[in-house]
Specification:
The chain is of the alpha/beta class. 33% of the residues lie in helices and 12% in strands. The longest helix has 19 residues.
Length: 421
Amino acid sequence: MRDIHSRGLERASRKAGLTDRAEPVHFHHPDFDKLNMRGWKAAEKEGSLPSAAWQKERQWALRMGLTGSDSLEDKTIPTFSRGELPHYAGINTFLKAPYIEDVTKVGAYDAAVIGIPFDGGTTYRPGTRFGPQGVRKISALYTPYNYEMGIDLREQMTLCDVGDVFTIPANIEKTFDQISRAVSHVASSGALPIMIGGDHSIGFPCVRGIAQCTSKRIGIVHFDRHIDIQEKDLDERMHTTPWFHATDLANVPAVNLVQVGIGGWQVPREGVQEARKRNTNIFTMRDIEEMGLAETAARALELAWKDADAVYISFDIDSVDCGFVPGTGWPEPGGFLPREALELVSLVAAEGICGLEVVEVSPPYDTSDITALLATRVIVDVLGTLVSHGKMGSHKGIIDKPVTIPAGPDVDGQGWGTNDA
């Protein structure tokens, strides 16, 4: 088959009234070796990954969902959908991970997803209370394996979904207390807390929940277009205020707060004044363009980790250009491209983290779930990075003041039923 260059020359020759067929043009690259390409190396790496957990899941699906009909050739398919497959079916947890109804057992897992369905701190478009549902739903599209990373989360770590925090829609302070209590329980167990918001007001109680479990110093890398550090907004602690209150905590100093992507026409001057007063660290999009992603990550890590013992990542989905993330409460043009955001958050996570929150996904304003999908991608890329760099579990060393939260009394049965499942 003639290549596109040959066909193009042939067409040009005919238009010029020359010969009907030009000699084909060949492009030779004698130094090219496909074995040196990342693409081929990733293909080879897949061959070294284990598959025991996938085999176990399929056996579990047959046990829980009954064996499939005799007409099926694939005998691993159950009658009732259980586990990862099919992607369009099932009751969605994040990434189809196990749902841990008894949260006292969360410590058996490396990481735990916590939904925080709250938008009582929103000052413009609401809807982020549906963020956890939206992210979980579209997360069913993914498998636990990433080709480029050469990582299979199912085989190389344990992940669970503990469901949602019981938030109080009409009371932001009671909701904050609920969130801190939930996050402190998960962090104290040793599982890495992964929070899905919810508006950005949850940043304060999430960090507070971790800070309660440790005497160690925590830095924060905050991805956003908005500065979010004024004391109050509309006379309350809203989604424009989390870092004022988080950096009031004794072991979360403002000098270790690094805010990445700030800019545009939605940065209240009250927040800027507070950032200046507290000596935080602010990188605009122009700063990032001029430094490049690698240098930006290096400087952010240097500042966040200076005299700190752990780093927390807060990722506001509106840090990405609103053309890619329509489903958010405060859309702003001029932010990251998705690929830039994923690269940068992975570079930051590579040094280890003590928690991750992804906030401000508002499914009612989303289009084809693309905002929720990017939020999913941020989470799985961070998990994959932690695994590939050997940092999964590194946060456990800072938990020197674990909290204990009492459970209710034992009961027979569960929910509507009278018998244990």
